[in-house]
Amino acid sequence: MLPRLFCLVGPTDDLSVLPDLARLGVRGFQVRAKHWSTRVDDRMALRLARDVVAAVRPHGATVVVDDRLDVALAAGADGVHLGALDLPVADARRLAPGLLVGATCRDADDVRRATQDGADYAGFGPVFDTLSKPGLPAPLGLDAISAATGDLPLLAIGGMDAPRAREARSAGAHGVAVIGALWRQPDPLLAARELLDAVA
């Protein structure tokens, strides 16, 4: 079953917290290393993905890798999440039929295309303003979630906290993906508990 809460994990995050998050009930982790691009960095990305898998899989959590099907496969991750400039979803599905495949979507048409191409879920956003990733388009708002439901489970992302996660679920999202709502909080475990309650 697709987790309702995904925690995005980057190279500067405190990986020692991951087993505790997984034990608490966070069942989705997405490895995200946007700024790595060289071959040396490929090895660092692979190491990060393997570290995340080792930290959370013993507790039953799912790990997807952002953008990189090759890293997902090499790390033994459960899936890959693909954006508009990444390997097409249909090709990822053909190359790795057993992996969970997510697609970044911004409207109902994107979701329909992702469904036809074989995606398992849509990362939908940004729903609200966010500080975690510069250069994003304007926030979509909750009505966009409602308009895009039906074809794929939607994981709302962008400016999420516990109250907004609850609103996203009410609007039709399957769950949420978060960065700052965990990593910028003084107590990530308390924040995770509140988010889990919000998306339950």
UniProtKB/TrEMBL annotation:
Function text: Condenses 4-methyl-5-(beta-hydroxyethyl)thiazole monophosphate (THZ-P) and 2-methyl-4-amino-5-hydroxymethyl pyrimidine pyrophosphate (HMP-PP) to form thiamine monophosphate (TMP).
Alphabetical list of SUPFAM superfamilies matching this protein: Thiamin phosphate synthase
HAMAP family in the record: TMP_synthase
Enzyme Commission number(s) of this protein: 2.5.1.3
Manner of cofactor binding, per the entry note: Binds 1 Mg(2+) ion per subunit.
Positions that bind 4-amino-2-methyl-5-(diphosphooxymethyl)pyrimidine: Q30, V31, R32, A33, K34, D66, T104, K133
GO CC annotations on file: cytoplasm
GO terms of biological process kind: thiamine biosynthetic process; thiamine diphosphate biosynthetic process
Organism of derivation: Nocardioides marinisabuli
Annotated Pfam families: TMP-TENI
Name of the protein in question: Thiamine-phosphate synthase
Family: Belongs to the thiamine-phosphate synthase family.
Cofactor: Mg(2+)
Thiamine phosphate synthase/TenI domain residues: 13-182
Catalytic activity: 2-[(2R,5Z)-2-carboxy-4-methylthiazol-5(2H)-ylidene]ethyl phosphate + 4-amino-2-methyl-5-(diphosphooxymethyl)pyrimidine + 2 H(+) = thiamine phosphate + CO2 + diphosphate; 2-(2-carboxy-4-methylthiazol-5-yl)ethyl phosphate + 4-amino-2-methyl-5-(diphosphooxymethyl)pyrimidine + 2 H(+) = thiamine phosphate + CO2 + diphosphate; 4-methyl-5-(2-phosphooxyethyl)-thiazole + 4-amino-2-methyl-5-(diphosphooxymethyl)pyrimidine + H(+) = thiamine phosphate + diphosphate
Keywords: Magnesium, Metal-binding, Thiamine biosynthesis, Transferase
Any GO molecular function: magnesium ion binding
Highest taxon, organism lineage: Bacteria
Pathway: Cofactor biosynthesis; thiamine diphosphate biosynthesis; thiamine phosphate from 4-amino-2-methyl-5-diphosphomethylpyrimidine and 4-methyl-5-(2-phosphoethyl)-thiazole: step 1/1
